[in-house]
From TrEMBL:
SUPFAM superfamilies: GroES-like, NAD(P)-binding Rossmann-fold domains. Keywords: Metal-binding, NAD, Oxidoreductase, Zinc. Residues 32-160 form the Alcohol dehydrogenase-like N-terminal domain. The lineage of its organism: Eukaryota, Metazoa, Chordata, Craniata, Vertebrata. It comes from the Eukaryota. InterPro entries: ADH-like_C (IPR013149), ADH-like_N (IPR013154), ADH_Zn_CS (IPR002328), GroES-like_sf (IPR011032), NAD(P)-bd_dom_sf (IPR036291). PROSITE patterns: ADH_ZINC. This is Alcohol dehydrogenase 6. GO terms for molecular function: alcohol dehydrogenase (NAD+) activity; S-(hydroxymethyl)glutathione dehydrogenase [NAD(P)+] activity; zinc ion binding. Its cofactor is Zn(2+). One of its GO terms (biological process) is formaldehyde catabolic process.
Length: 373
């Protein structure tokens, strides 16, 4: 029978404070749960934002952050049929139960299995599986990948091929899937079209890649950090613009560059003012803006006439992918060289350097740091 595992985790004791490496205890999986040995985890801007930023709803502390990861099944709880010890897996902050109205509809990927609980850091029974010094530790988005072991529901887990390199495919657990899907699924970018991608972090670069795969002829990267422009070109950007180089608002600059606006704009920052700029940079009559950047508290301004004139505005969550079934296909695409992942990874660090990884992210010096556990 499975027993409690003692291991290391990067723990957030309170908001605004660096993470602390602590000894934690991870309980065995309960019914319909799977315990995973996390091998590699990406450090995502949402993790940083939750600890230090303003754009997130309050969730309880102490907690273990991390939600973009890959690992190996260590043990399974009762009634788990689709996973066995040794399986390579990617945990999912977006479940796919396969049975609800949303899972049965092709219109959405928004399954709500265990949703309310996972949003506040616990599993189906209202408790978490991680504790430290006798105290319950909450699991960020129900995952907590900054921990050597974690437990997730069996509906929030994708089984992937056994030859996939976990230190690369971990990026498909959040950022790359989100940006890539924003272009190919939600935006449905067409061949020969013009696109602008706002924000050239991991999500934005993945959106650039999606636009290129879709056959767009112009892909304009927009970022206030020109150090990102060379990387954007690798992923398919045809040109890049720094808003700081212009006196006019960026939407006016883009309209001039593209004879009235781009066909598609993808916002990958999570800033409401940039969302408005992205929307206004699209062509009237058929321009389409997709919001992929994350904020839970922001409000964006939309001039009604700009919608009336034929533009569309939409949002994407996890790039529109049905998580359990699509993530293994994205892994296959990477293995078949149809999808870039290695190029996103700028740094590799051990778990005890997690605060360094946060610093690299915030300073704009990294695209993705992969933490090995």
């Amino acid at each position: 029978t499975a027993t409690v595992i003692k291991c290391k985790a990067a723990l957030a004791w309170e908001p605004g404070k660096p993470l602390a490496i602590e000894d934690v205890e991870v309980d065995p999986p309960k019914v319909h749960e799977v315990r995973i040995k996390i091998v590699a985890t990406g450090v995502c801007h949402t993790d940083w934002e939750y600890l230090y930023g303003q754009g997130m709803k309050v969730r309880p502390f102490p907690l273990v952050l991390g939600h973009e990861a890959a690992g190996v099944v260590e043990s399974v709880g009762p009634e788990v049929t689709k996973f066995s010890p040794g399986d390579k897996v990617i945990p999912l902050f977006l479940p796919q139960c396969g049975e609800c109205e949303r899972c049965l509809s092709p219109k959405t990927n928004h399954c709500r299995k265990n949703w309310a609980n996972m949003q506040v850091g616990v599993l189906a029974d209202g408790t978490s599986r991680i504790s430290c010094k006798g105290q319950q530790v909450y699991q960020f988005l129900g995952i907590s990948s900054f921990c050597q072991y974690t437990v997730v529901p069996d509906t929030s887990l994708a089984k992937i091929r056994c030859d996939a390199p976990l230190d690369k495919v971990c990026l498909l657990g959040c950022g790359v899937s989100t940006g890539y899907g924003a272009a190919v699924n939600t935006g449905k970018v067409k061949k020969q079209s013009s696109c602008a991608v706002f924000g050239l972090g991991a999500v934005g670069l993945a959106a650039v890649m999606g636009c290129q795969v879709a056959g767009a002829k112009r892909i304009i990267g927009v970022d206030i950090n020109p150090d990102k422009f060379e990387k954007a070109a690798v992923f398919g950007a045809t040109e890049c613009v720094n808003p700081k180089d212009h006196k006019k608002p960026i939407q006016e600059v883009l309209a001039e560059m593209t004879d009235g606006g781009v066909d598609y704009a993808l916002e990958c920052v999570g800033d409401p003012a940039i969302m408005t700029a992205a929307f206004e940079s699209t062509k009237d009559a058929w321009g389409s803006c997709v919001i992929a950047g994350w904020t839970e508290t922001g409000m964006m301004n939309v001039v009604v006439e700009k919608i009336l004139m034929g533009r569309t505005l939409s949002g994407t969550y996890f790039g529109g992918w049905k998580s359990v079934e699509d993530v293994p296909k994205l892994v296959d695409d990477y293995m078949n060289k149809k999808l870039k992942l290695d190029e996103f990874i700028t740094h590799n660090l051990p778990l005890d350097q997690i605060n360094v990884a946060f610093g690299l992210l915030k300073s704009g010096n990294s695209i993705r740091t992969v933490i090995s556990l």
